[in-house]
Amino acid sequence: MNEFWIVITSFALTVLIGKFLIPELRKWHFGQSIRECGPKEHMKKSGTPTMGGIMMILAVIVACLMWIPFDPHIIVALWLFTGYGLIGFIDDGLKIFFKRNLGLTAKQKMALQILVAAVYLLYPGDVYSTKIWIPLVNASVDLGYFYPVFILLLLVGTTNAVNLTDGLDGLAAGVTIPVMLAFAAIASLAGLPHECLFSLAVFGSCVGFLRYNHYPAKVFMGDTGSLALGGAVAAAAIGTHTEILLVLIGGVYVVETVSVIMQVLYFKKTGGKRIFRMTPIHHHFELGGWPETTVVARFCLASIICSGLGVLLYVLR
Q1: What are phi and psi of 115, to 5 degrees?
Q2: What is the DSSP secondary structure assignment for residue 76, as one 8-state letter?
Q3: First CA to last CA distance, the chain
Q4: Measured between alpha carbons, how far is 138 from 242 in angstroms, rounded to an integer?
Q5: DSSP summary character for residue 37
Q6: Among 81, 117, 136, 272, which has the minimal tally of Cβ within 10 Å of its Cβ?
Q7: Is 300 helix (H, G, I), strand (E, B) or coil?
Q8: Is 13 exposed, middle or buried (0-12, 13-18, 19+ CB in 10 A)?
């Protein structure tokens, strides 16, 4: 029964906080700066309130404190969720304060992301096993001393991948909804009720956020929200011991990231040529003539398929 109530609590709190937060963001002129090199259609979004991820973070924290008994695993999950959200908050704050599209430098952001991961890895006690499950072959491999390096790469990679996905109204939240439902289902099947509840809390906050973020968006989640969601997705994968399966469940995040890597490498190798019209790849389809709502709908459908396949693969292990 707690599963139902934690979703309702997280959803309702996100909507409620949004009613008060969005007017305050407008009042303080906490608006989004749009890149001039981005799609021209997006310039009309300039000034839309950002940092809306604050409502999601607060809602998830309160919902988890209300419905999940004290558990070291959940403390760690909440740390990854809020810790990466705090990095995004700093990044968004610098963008707003200096009235520019760039906040933290790449090196500064990477250093802070490593710091958050390090705090998790130094958490006292044996919170998680150093073994990882390999899908398809249904085998476990003990990484031993290499586990911290693996987790560091997972956390930094996932948070940045979700951050890249946040580029259209409703996209990041819409893609993350089936991802968190998949991890909730896996946690339930694995007999991990607290991990299930955490995933459902994040799911509820994403649904609530879409109340304000669907096209045309009244607020953007900013890096505050996208990095927090990245931390939550990674925490759910770690908590359910399905780190490798995240590549399939989070398939949309992977494609978004790979498109950027391919574009940069090809651009450098060919002296300025491009594979895609623009990356991340959702902009490629947008510039190809797809309406923004169509891109979001199809990417969300792809996320549903990837998440469903991930759960099926786990069930058939």
Answers
A1: -60, -45
A2: H
A3: 28
A4: 11
A5: T
A6: 272
A7: helix
A8: buried
pTM over 0.70? The answer is yes
Measured CA to CA, the distance from residue 168 to residue 43 in angstroms comes to: 12
- Determine the length of the chain: 317
Distance CA 121, CA 115 (A): 10
**Residue 134 Cα distances to 2, 148, 204, 241, 307, angstroms:** 31, 17, 29, 10, 17
Determine contact, residues 120/231, Cβ cutoff 8 Å: no
DSSP designation for 240: T
What phi-psi label fits residue 34: left (phi over 0), alpha (psi between -120 and 50 degrees) or beta?
beta
Q: What letter represents residue 31's amino acid? A: G
pLDDT digits (tens, 9 = 90+) for 272-290: 999 999 999 999 999 999 9
For tokens 């491999």, name the residue. Answer: 141
Q: Retrieve residue 7's tokens.
A: 């979703």
**Taking a C-beta distance cutoff of 8 angstroms, is the pair 203, 177 a contact?**
yes
